[in-house]
């Protein structure tokens, strides 16, 4: 690896439908931005092609300007360019209104809209004589890139391009994914454990020889308690106790919770079956019963689930008004304050391809309590159970884990965490310091991606 990877700058083009912070729905958006930045920092060239949604958060795009237009698919496509987190982004705006619908997902014709976008993006590369080394596509929404490229563009001057396809969540659009797996040169998913968990899936199994699990990282500049405008006091691991105390007080004040030194459990999540909703609810009750405070920030794409949580919020807020808040919305600034102000962040997922929440939590010195599945298993090592496994990977134990997706499982991890907080505070504070110092950035995984890019390129 080493030598070649460092010497030859490559040109990588991501074709994606999410990108943090301007069009982020979940972890996919974070990964597109932070992986690109890490690869760019290793002296490679990266461009991103994204739909120009009407709901883009343009205040985070620098030097935004009209670039050119072209015609394809029976419509004019306007192309805009700008910089997002320092990355070059081309925005495609087809004049057929496909991306003027007020949202990223959630239209009846998402597959048609994104299929159109994928083909339009390849056409843009073709018409403008881009010669990238790698085209990287993501999940079902840009999976069509893999086969459209091989069917329509491989024999043009784009013939030297390697295609890499990353599965962020197999749950979505598995039937698209199987076809992309057939056509792509290399495929990845976002953690080694998840890659094993899905290896028997009929979309994956025939292609296992080109399928790799690479853990996601987080961008340490985007998630940085020393430089975060949403928290009251900057802190590094040395001042984790002071920094988190100030953040907890600010959080309590902002949400109208009792200002007191109590164990505070945070949950930041999409509210879907995958994320273990019944386990979150149980953990809320258990934490309240043990005298703690709880802040949940989450929103449900499914209106039944959202209503269910609204009812739960009403009930809990009247029973324990100064100890629990359910904030049922998407709120990035508030998420920063919770990551900093919580003692624990709970991620009780039924399955979890990688999970970024636990990684961000650790960066802010919040102790993760997670179910041992997928990427959660690869990144959280139980303080009692996983010492050897942690050491084998160069880490110290960093959290509390449980195995079974039931209330007993949650209790097992949560009770130990809360007891430690009450009875062994120095040890607990030291754990916060240790986890803050762990490196869950892209430093390691970006090198794995580069190795894979080189391998994909060789196949062409
Ligand atoms: P997924 O992609 O399955 O939703 P991840 O753990 O990979 O889960 O990524 C979730 C990301 O979305 C994290 O950056 C988390 O902080 C953020 N997030 C989730 N829900 C909310 C919310 N309601 N408000 C703000 N940020 C949220």
Structural notes for this entry:
- It is found in: Plastid, Amyloplast; Plastid, Chloroplast.
- Belongs to the glycosyltransferase 1 family. Bacterial/plant glycogen synthase subfamily.
- This is starch synthase.
- This protein has 460 residues and is α/β, with parallel strands linked by helices.
- It has 2 domains: 2-218 and 443-458, Glycogen Phosphorylase B (Rossmann fold, 3-Layer(aba) Sandwich); 237-436, Rossmann fold (3-Layer(aba) Sandwich).
- It has 17 helices and 15 strands.
- The strands form 2 sheets. The chain has a 9-stranded mixed sheet with strand order 3-4-5-2-1-6-7-8-9, sandwiched between helices. Strands 12-11-10-13-14-15 form a 6-stranded parallel sheet, sandwiched between helices.
- A hairpin with a 2-residue loop joins strand 3 (62-72) and strand 4 (75-84).
- The two termini are 19 Å apart.
- The site of adenosine-5'-diphosphate has 18 residues, from helix 2, strand 10, strand 11, helix 11 and helix 12.
Short structural summary:
This protein has 460 residues and is an alpha/beta fold.
Distance between the terminal alpha carbons, to the nearest Å? 19 Å
Q: Mean pLDDT, nearest integer?
A: 95
Largest sheet: 9 strands, mixed
CATH fold field value of the largest domain: Rossmann fold
Shape: globular
Task: Give the C-level CATH assignment of the largest domain.
Answer: Alpha Beta
- What's the CATH superfamily of the largest domain, by name? Glycogen Phosphorylase B
The second-level CATH architecture of the largest domain is 3-Layer(aba) Sandwich
- What percent of residues are in strands? 15-25%
Helical residue percent band = 40-55%
Bound molecules: adenosine-5'-diphosphate
**SS-based class:** alpha/beta
Total domain modules: 2
Strand order of the largest sheet: 3-4-5-2-1-6-7-8-9
> What is the number of helical segments per DSSP (H or I, 4+ residues)?
17
Radius of gyration: 22 Å
Q: Which runs of at least 5 residues are low in confidence (pLDDT < 50)?
A: none
Please provide the count of β strands: 15
Protein name: starch synthase
Family: Belongs to the glycosyltransferase 1 family. Bacterial/plant glycogen synthase subfamily.
Subcellular location: Plastid, Amyloplast; Plastid, Chloroplast
Organism: Cajanus cajan
